[in-house]
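3.2 Worked example (two chains)
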Amino acid sequence: MVVRLKRNTATDPAAEGIYHCKVMDNTETEQRIYVGLYNGGGDITISEELTVESDLNAASPQFTLTCVSTGGPATTVTWTRDNVNITGEQNETVLNDPVTAQYTHTLTIAAARVYMCMVSNNKPSTASASITLEDPPSPTDVTAVQDGPTSITVTWTPPSPLGDTTGYRISFTGSSDVDIDGGFTNSYTLTGLTNEHTYTISIVATSEHLFSDATTFEIALVPAPGQMLVSVSSITATSISLSWSVSSGRVASWEVVWRPTDRGTESTSGPLSGTTYTIHHLDPSTIYTLTVSATNVAGTTDSTPILF
């Protein structure tokens, strides 16, 4: 997150009072930015605009912006969100020290907007600080594939430029969100899923406090192929022709494996896309055993061995 400080030089040639904004993270580490000065003497020059990289580490998307005014005459603090007055939303106003007239004003914020606290007094003088919260960019090229009977791997391309992205959050049906650290991470495998179930999956990029737009899609987990049904369509002394099907399920590839029953040397057709195959050059004096297998992402189903 980038914190930008601006001083209103048109109405504040010499600010009356020490005005600063601070953001407190969940470890109570304070990010304090001074935007004005009152010391009973001459003014001290402050940069017209200063950019500070904040090192916040909040535990949730919400965090607290605190505006403090110290010393000088009575002050008024005004909050705006995208230039709209939201002073009524502040959580509290606390008089910390009656001697220095230090007031603390806090506001809980989460949405990606420009927030400003403006401190003014009756001299007149005004100082302000603004914090710009921007949603991180979304990951692109998001895909999800089943890579086992109960698992799905989600892959994506990290945003470019990465910006404030610190990780990703994956949400899916029937489970808690999964938070993934690292802006350059580009894949994650969801495990322990239910076969033959359709999952709705969403992924967002995360920064310290905010989320990108979500990419959402559905994927159905397919079961392993069902029972194999193999038929012998023709047979000669040196060849055998087969055809087959499965009782249920999708099939990515088939394979025929055969071997002599008295020897362990196997022969294979290799992956097949069709449902027929002919084995040639068999030894007429040999008895063979063959099986046909069907494979998809969920596993492999073998047929009952056939002797011929």
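3.2.1 Second chain
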Amino acid sequence: VLRLVKLLSRGEGIRNLLWTFIKSFQALPHVALLIVMLFFIYAVIGMQMFGKIALVDGTQINQNNNFQTFPQAVLMLFRCATGEAWQEVLLGASYGKLCDPESDYAPGEKYTCGSGFAYFYFVSFYMLCAFLIINLFVA
């Protein structure tokens, strides 16, 4: 351990690198807060727009992946942020999907859940995550 301290005291380049690394950790809470805010806003919007879609096994919106509760919505967004089948989730949330029988849809509106807004919602979320948030976190 003392050799490492002695090496760091002599090496100007290593000391500058270590100092920069320590200073970058000061901005980490701000970036984390930005990511949490983005996920929170998109999860709430997703719950309002796609929370009534019926959970059908074999589709991307099922019992494990849905927008019916806040934790499930955040988990679904995390899947989309990592790029895991976000296009299929987009298509599963588009207009004309079967409504959940427990939701309060009107008679004759069985296939009116989902929204055309899904295209803007998922593409904007993926672009923000892929090109902005991930680069901020890595930088």
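3.3 Remarks
The chain has one domain: 28-138.
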